[in-house]
Specification:
404 residues, alpha/beta, Rossmann fold, 2 domains, 16 helices, 40% helix, elongated
């Protein structure tokens, strides 16, 4: 049994900011890898990013860096660049892995780093395939989803508050590291990998059929409120004004909903009137407005507690709309019964929720690294253990503000 997770022993150096690269490192750290992130002295671009505490501590930074180690380096100095470079290319068969979204040029280029370690694995996250800059909130409008999001009557795009492409990119970065590391174990050769944020959006739109649909021109893609495209799904309001979402993708889900509501005959009459077999997923979408009207009346006559009981008994596919506070207060997913959820005391912040990696192993130990590092808190140990520097060398670097 591994005591510290599936990736125990693997060392990854991370030079990053924003979401995607830190998220990739977070996933690796939560699975047991040693992830060392280097930051500029006093913190990098995202060290103060919102949300923040009343004292100014970034919950964003702490959330994305749990389980990692932190070293502060003056990477604008020649000596600081050498330390970061030495750290990335340090000896050890499980080291020599670099994850970054910093510009991969000059001393941080693959060419420069691989000269020091030929079997280096480097994953570089970029905006566009040609290396030009993008962020999630510029990629998303270009991919097309904001123009099909929101109520029908809106005449302006609706952005997502979730950085979807960043999250997918971070996950792909972790996959890329593992793929390249497997290749290195088999061949002894390193690898340089680039993943473009906009390519992640393009890949996703293609995989979900949106690009083919637009190319073929067989159906205009428009916004449709909260209807679930191609199936039956919508939000509904209970008697006591609680919003819920009902979704029927499969025939079983559809039949469970009809049994729970007792509306089987009403739906059969609608099916005959519209000449549509409503057991078919696509036909339920064609009849979505009539179905919404029927189920809105039924849900509006039930209290939320009644819905919970009835839908639970009949295994209806549904869920409540709720705030983050309500999620923490009322939902079994954010409770001590869930093995990935806990409440921890984070130095510098206080008591906060922690969520471990959702990847759960059943034949080896799952690790939990709930705390984020103090900025630069691991500097001395890393210099000693990874770079084998002496006390005198470290003292000299600190005195000259090369490290902090």
């Amino acid at each position: 049994m591994l005591a510290k997770g599936a990736l125990s022993g693997l060392r990854i150096v991370e030079g990053s900011a924003f979401v995607a690269a830190p998220l990739g490192g977070l996933l690796m750290a939560q699975l047991g890898a040693e992830v060392i992130r280097f930051d500029q002295i006093n913190g990098g671009l995202d060290y103060g990013r919102w949300p923040i505490t009343t004292s100014g501590e970034s919950l964003f930074w702490h959330g994305l860096n749990r389980g990692k180690k932190s070293i502060q380096i003056d990477i604008n100095s020649v000596a600081g660049k050498k330390i970061a470079s030495d750290l990335i290319t340090a000896d050890g068969e499980d080291g020599g892995i670099f994850l970054t979204n910093f510009p991969a040029k000059d001393w941080l280029s693959y060419e420069a780093l691989s000269q020091k370690r030929p079997d280096l694995i480097m994953v570089s996250l970029v905006g566009n395939y040609d290396g030009s800059s993008e962020v999630d909130y510029t990629v998303n409008p270009a991919i097309g989803y904001p123009l099909i999001t929101g109520a029908k009557e809106l005449d302006e795009p609706v952005n997502s508050v979730l950085p979807t492409w960043d999250l997918l990119l971070g996950s792909m970065a972790a996959i890329a590291i593992l793929a390249a590391e497997r290749k290195r174990r088999k061949t002894g050769h390193g690898e340089y990998i680039t993943i473009a944020l906009s390519d992640v959006g393009l890949f996703t739109a293609g995989a979900l059929g949106k690009l083919a649909q637009a190319h073929l021109g067989q159906e205009e893609i428009t916004r449709d409120g909260n209807y679930l495209y191609g199936a039956f799904g919508h939000n509904f309001t209970t008697r006591d004004r609680k919003e819920i979402m009902i979704v029927c993708l499969t025939t079983r889900q559809w039949q469970n909903l009809l049994k729970a509501t007792g509306l089987g005959q009403v739906i059969a009459d609608l099916s005959q009137l519209r000449n549509l077999d409503l057991n078919q997923e696509g036909n339920r979408y064609l009849a979505r407005e009539s179905l919404r009207e029927i189920f809105s009346q039924w849900v509006g006559n039930q209290s939320y507690s009644e819905i919970v009981q009835i839908f639970g008994d009949h295994k209806v596919s549904w869920g409540p709309y709720q705030s983050f506070n309500e999620l923490l207060s009322n939902d079994k997913r954010a409770s001590a019964n869930n093995p990935i959820f806990s409440i921890v005391s984070q130095p510098g912040i206080g008591t906060i929720p922690n969520v471990d990696a959702p990847i759960r192993f059943h034949n080896i130990d799952n690790c939990s690294y709930p705390l984020s590092p103090i900025l630069g808190g691991d500097t001395v140990n890393i210099l000693k253990q990874v770079l084998n520097l002496s006390e005198e060398e470290i003292a000299d670097l600190r005195e000259n503000r090369i490290v902090a």
